[in-house]
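Issue 218. Parser rejects a valid record. Input:
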Amino acid sequence: MTYWFAGQLYIDEPLPLAPSDPALAYGASIFTTVRVYGRTLEHPLTAWKAHCDRISQSLHFFHWPQPNWQQVIEGAQALLSDYPVLRLAILADGTELITGRSLPPNLAQQQTDGVTVWVAQGPQYQRSMPRHKTGNYLPCWLAMQAARTHGARDAILATPAGEWLETSTGNLWGYAQGQWWTPPLDSGLLPGISRAQLIKALGPQAVASIPWTPDMVGQFECLAYSNCVVGLMPIHTALLGNIKLNYSSTHEGLNALMRMFYLPSMREHNG
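Output the parser choked on:
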């Protein structure tokens, strides 16, 4: 495995991090996951600046030191030729750790057919400090593992009152009454970068943002989630206890939303 740590590239070597480091002991880190388009950090869909800005804001919130950002760029550039997806983590002392991975298998097919999700209900699936993407990602991981036992690709996290918030990996989108809906940030979810890109592309007035109650989720014609790795992922089935909620994975709204996400950035990239 090749990774970058504290200004140095490592190839098939153990991570030089003490077992007592707060990042391991307490999950004391801030991270983001970047899909690198065109093998460059400058591509608008890569959204490199947005990722760095979000990390920087969280570091400021926790009163942790900023990393050497030039060193971070060097590390990302050292890995992007081999990996289309980078995970950038900044530890509590400002040290950077960058790892890489491949795109999810069968991504294009899943984006065409849609996927199944499982609605996670219970206190063990409640995220702490949802406005910040910290290394303590245990509730999301637990929800994802449970979803897989139900044959689902991802899990939907919900409030104690049953309002849908987000999936364990992305932000939710639903289409009804001729427009798109997404849960509001103040309901307790991560402010996703792809979510912000889509709202900008659609226009703030074209997106309704209110809590997703149990009654509301049954009214959507189609459903999807977004994140920086998959872009937009249609959902054809949501498993809610013993109930199966079915949604269209071929709805024209999904195709239109996909175009809204990609085309403005591609025009900007092509100049």
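Fixed in the parser; the record now loads. The radius of gyration is 19 Å.
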